[in-house]
Amino acid sequence: MDNGLLVVISGPSGAGKGTICKRLKEEIKDLKVSVSATTRKPREGEIEGTSYYFINEEEFIKRINNEEFLEYAKVYGNYYGTPKREVFKELQDGNDIILEIDIQGALQVKKNYPKGVFIFILPPSLTELNNRIEKRGTDSKEVILKRMQCAYDELDYAFEYDYVVVNDEVEAAVEKIKIIILAEKNRAIRKKAIISKIREV
């Protein structure tokens, strides 16, 4: 059996990563979603093992020291991380997994698991990105300005990824990513088991 594919999707805030990942999960039924661990308290409606693995800071740091995370970061006083064991088990079982994480996390994953497929989501323009963030209605002008400056700086990291997909229209972006996944699953390097089996016949 071939190993599954680890698909890492990231990009600037407001580029539409969450919407794209949600659509991918709806359209690719066997696509698994990695559950992150966090030290923050559960919010109403969140379920242990489905929303997050909720652990205390002492345990989280212990797992960092034991190299149990594919990636981790401290955000607004809480740790978040992708458990390595669960991801690797799914991949070894032949299941494809999607990770929607920030750029810092994606670069950590690339270092720890370079066989992943790394996709950077871009907005059609910075003007459109600004419009999308404003339409959310959740951020002050100062926060929007910071997000835009951050997005401008993050564009440099696009060259660290395997693919760049411009999200000018969600369905078109999703179709492009589905094509990327199909192509990557059929790369010769991922078909060693099949090639070996054919040789045995």
Indicate the topology.
Layout: E1 6-10, H1 17-27, E2 32-33, E3 37-38, E4 53-54, H2 57-65, E5 69-75, E6 78-83, H3 84-92, E7 97-100, H4 103-112, E8 117-122, H5 126-136, H6 141-154, E9 163-166, H7 170-185, H8 192-200
Parallel strand pairs: 1-7, 1-8, 2-7, 3-4, 8-9
Antiparallel strand pairs: 3-6, 5-6
Can you tag this structure with a few keywords?
19% strand, alpha/beta, 201 residues, 4-stranded mixed β-sheet, 5-stranded parallel β-sheet
Overall description:
By secondary structure, this protein is α/β, with parallel strands linked by helices. It has 8 helices and 9 strands. It has a 5-stranded parallel sheet with strand order 2-7-1-8-9, with helices on both faces. A 4-stranded mixed sheet has the order 4-3-6-5. The radius of gyration is 18 Å and the shape is globular. The protein starts with 5 loop residues before the first strand and ends with a helix.
Structure summarized in a few sentences:
The protein is of the alpha/beta class. It has helices at residues 17-27, 57-65, 84-92, 103-112, 126-136, 141-154, 170-185, 192-200; strands at 6-10, 32-33, 37-38, 53-54, 69-75, 78-83, 97-100, 117-122, 163-166.
Q: Rounded to an integer, what's the Rg over CA atoms? A: 18 Å
Point out poorly predicted stretches. none
Q: Count of DSSP helices?
A: 8
Question: Strand percentage, roughly?
Answer: 15-25%
* Secondary structure: number of strands: 9
CATH topology title: Rossmann fold
Strand order of the largest sheet: 2-7-1-8-9
The best one-word shape is globular
- Biggest sheet, in brief? 5 strands, parallel
CATH architecture annotation: 3-Layer(aba) Sandwich
Number of domains: 1
The residue fraction in helices comes out at 40-55%
